[in-house]
Design a protein that fits this description.
alpha/beta, FAD/NAD(P)-binding domain, Enolase-like, domain 1, 3 domains, 7-stranded mixed beta sheet, 13 helices, binds flavin-adenine dinucleotide, binds nicotinamide-adenine-dinucleotide
Amino acid sequence: MSTYDVAVIGSGPGGYVAAIRCAQLGMKTAIIEKYSTKGGTCLNVGCIPSKALLDSSHHYEDALKHFEEHGIELTGDVKLNLEKMMERKASVVDQTTKGIDFLMDKNKIDSYQGIGSFEDKTHIKIEGEETTTIEAKHIIIATGSKPASLPFIDIDKERIITSTEALKLKEVPKHMLVIGGGVIGLELGQVYKRLGAEVTVIEYMDRIIPTMDAAQSKELTKVMKKQKVKFAVSHKVTSVENTGDEVVVKATDKKDKEVEFKGDYCLVSVGRRPFTDGLNAEAAGVKMNDRGQIEVDKHLKTSADNIYAIGDVVKGAMLAHKAEEEGVFVAETIAGQKPHIDYNLIPGVVYTWPEVASVGKTEEQLKEDKVEYKSGQFPMRALGRSRASGDTDGFVKILSDKETDEVLGVHMVGARAADLIAEAVTAMEFRASAEDIARMSHAHPTYSEAVKEAALAATEDRPIHT
Ligand code: FAD
Ligand code: NAD
């Protein structure tokens, strides 16, 4: 029987990063993945394919609607070749997942394909083409998540679909109903809107992206409404039915009136659930909580003292970079180091266009925590860079402590906000004040000037360009 210092179950961004860090730290490491390609949700049916389709559909929309204003005239019709777009996406996924195989080999990590299940605290049975058992001193569970649904919805994967099917549709829906105005609903809703579908987002809460700062919800709603996406917020879905060529969604609005929506596809994007099926965690004494997550302490250790769990299968934001941080954290903990993660500084991004990005506390959280704060906001439209590219929607908002001026939260909507947020994370990691950011030179003309201007507005209410 092969024996290891560490065995990692699951090869998503949590698992494969944990395996690499363990190997870097000199531990003999194995990784177990049930599918034939590594990379988990993120690389196969999540971050990477969705961003490929977001980029492709953005190009299509630009060609249809925006080339002309730049003085680019197309002589023929702009035609969508969805099959080719999907092929490109598949090839991006293929290259990226192969990259993980390369990294496993480079770091001398043994890969096993099959479903890993605990026999006891140190033995994992792997059922693939053959069945083997391996032994490991330490085990890291990184089994990720699957799409969640509502109890009364039958996901038939034909008309009533999750993100996994939405990433490989063979036709552009005529009318896509989206249940859940969170990250997946808005990103994939925008993809199909750009490709020509009518899109209606039905959201239970009174605003889309309800966990982000309310100013971001408002701005994104405004921009997406301009793009002709329809929103039904404060609507509680009560039934979803595939009637053949049509899906009928019934919901009650805030006045308790029944409303009916009809479309040809319905994307259910109401969150994801931790995935532990087939893991036989009980055999190792690993406990779950009542949300189905693996219970971990502050060291990400489970109720079994040689077993850790990371990523979507434990509490916290379901984000690839959070899973990666936890992978490194656990590897270093096993190696006897004392790593640290500041969960408040894990940024959140929605890759719509304009992009939405956040780090730290929202204005609503600061109010709830009774923290006295200052707020500085700067509109993207006031930047020369935004006018040059035509990306004038959005803003940067900086919240800082009223007394100390320490930056407590940065929230933005705008072109390349996903990249701009890194400056805010760095500043907050070093506990910068808004004035620190305001006094730093930001290249002109860039979108990042909005960060400086928002910092000036937060510091002394003296932005230069508004
Ligand atoms: P996963 O990536 O889910 O990987 C778990 C792996 O474990 C899977 O490969 C699974 O097959 C394997 N596994 C499970 N059980 C077993 C077993 N018993 N034996 C062997 N293998 C097993 N996050 C971002 O940060 N940015 C984004 O842009 C983004 N976009 C997304 C878009 C979509 C459409 C979706 C669905 C998600 C997106 N996410 C994004 C979320 C991100 O994909 C997850 O947070 C991330 O993949 C979690 O990583 P993980 O390693 O915890 O789990
Ligand atoms: P989400 O939690 O982002 O959004 C779910 C939305 O559905 C929420 O707005 C919620 O209020 C709403 N909802 C819940 N129940 C409902 C109901 N009965 N009727 C109507 N609306 C309802 O979840 P998601 O969009 O499914 O994404 C799942 C996970 O994947 C998220 O945790 C997210 O972090 C991750 N993800 C991240 C990215 C990214 O980082 N860009 C992209 C895609 C997915």
